[in-house]
Specification:
With 211 residues, this protein is an alpha/beta fold. The chain is built from eight helices and eight strands; from the N terminus they run E-H-E-H-E-H-E-H-E-H-E-H-E-E-H-H. Strands 1-2-3-4-5-6-7-8 form an eight-stranded parallel β-barrel, surrounded by five helices. Strand 6, helix 6 and strand 7 form a beta-alpha-beta unit. Helix 1 packs parallel to helix 2 and helix 1 packs parallel to helix 8. The two termini are 21 Å apart.
């Protein structure tokens, strides 16, 4: 398993952006200090996904930030990404680990303690837990209580990140919860300047001792 820093985990959303504008915003976020970047594309064809992933990977390598591919083990392999993130409807963690080997990062979505323990046992390196708040991204979201998040953090020895509608102004709800980091989508993608948004998110998380 590779070493990685999950403290400020940026999940992309290219909806509404031309490719060059999208890549510009991704690089601004990298400049701001994201520590892990997940490319999430629900609508693109496999070829489109791979093409975009290649370009994003060029950027993340420049900033020494691991690239995580959402859902698709094949796309992750095609671009030699550092890892993949899998949900409940995707390939199992155990299957992905068998294919990708020990050195790739494999993350999993978890909403319950039993599920968290199961995917950890299968070989997950980190967990994304949420949604803490309702989100505006075009993915199915089920809210997860902060108490469940806390219980999951205590139940597994791997990093646990909070996700779902998080921004610089609402992180206080997570105070005292032993998370490893926060995930953000819209707070960065839809910001006037993603670089500034990342810096402000990091500052807010630090102030609350979340990261």
């Amino acid at each position: 398993m590779k070493q990685f820093d999950p403290s400020l985990y940026f999940i992309t959303d290219s909806t509404g952006f031309l490719e060059e504008e999208f890549l510009f915003r991704v690089e601004r976020a990298l400049l701001g200090g994201v520590s892990l970047l997940q490319l999430r594309e629900k609508q693109k064809t496999t070829r489109e996904y791979i093409s975009l992933a290649e370009r994003v990977h060029e950027l993340t390598k420049q900033y020494n930030v691991p690239l995580i591919i959402d859902d698709r083990v094949d796309v992750a392999m095609a671009v030699d990404a550092e890892g993949v993130h899998l949900g409940a409807e995707d390939m199992t963690i155990a299957q992905a680990r068998k294919i990708l080997g020990a050195d790739k990062i494999i993350g999993a979505t978890a909403k319950t303690v039993p599920w968290a323990q199961d995917v950890y046992a299968q070989g997950a390196d980190y967990l994304g837990v949420g949604a803490i708040y309702p989100t505006t991204t075009k993915v199915k979201t089920v809210l997860t209580s902060v108490e469940t998040l806390r219980e999951i953090c205590k139940a597994v020895p791997i990093p646990v990140n909070a996700i779902g509608g998080l921004n610089k102004g609402n992180l206080g709800i997570l105070a005292g919860v032993p998370i490893a980091g926060i995930c953000a989508v819209s707070a960065i993608m839809k910001a006037e300047d993603p670089k500034i948004a990342v810096e402000e998110l990091r500052a807010s998380a630090h102030a609350l001792a979340l990261i």
